[in-house]
Amino acid sequence: MPEAFFYQLNGDSPEAVLPRMLDMALGKGWRIEVRGLARDRMERLDLALWGEGGEFRPHGIAGGPHDSEQPILLTVAQGQGDRDCLMALDGAPVSEGEALVAQRVCIVFDGSDPEALSTARTQWKVLTGAGLAARYYMREDGTWSLRQERQARS
């Protein structure tokens, strides 16, 4: 059954936390789409995924000749193919249909931005309304804490 995980950032950037999240998803053997609203965000993530000390995470920015082969695809467009995990940043849209065919949807947002918080709340209602199990995590002092959980429903 698909799951939706919500990650509220408080002071950290997505570029700082996504590499570890992506490592965990890759460890499950998942193919991942990271979706944002702005190409410059995807370009910053592209640089961050090269990692410090040469720690490379296999990825590409959508629009290349090998998009379908990328373990991690960075994009600003919906519908980039069959992915096990969809990570949405900055309020990027996630349709109910996409969520129901993925193993996991991750919504990553800035908790200090009222608009981002409102968008995440709406996404929570849509995804849990579609029957997905959901977990809400908040990042404080460099660690994640589970703040809310909802079971899947049929």
UniProtKB/TrEMBL annotation:
GO terms classed as biological process: DNA replication; positive regulation of DNA-templated DNA replication initiation
Keywords: Nucleotidyltransferase, Transferase
Keyword Transferase applies: yes
This protein's name: DNA polymerase III chi subunit
Recorded superkingdom: Bacteria
Enzyme Commission code: 2.7.7.7
MF GO annotations: DNA binding; DNA-directed DNA polymerase activity
Lineage: Bacteria, Pseudomonadati, Pseudomonadota, Alphaproteobacteria, Rhodobacterales
InterPro entries found in the cross-reference section: DNA_pol3_chi, PolIII_chi_sf
Keyword Iron-sulfur: no
SUPFAM superfamilies: DNA polymerase III chi subunit
Signal peptide: none
UniProt source species: Rubellimicrobium mesophilum DSM 19309
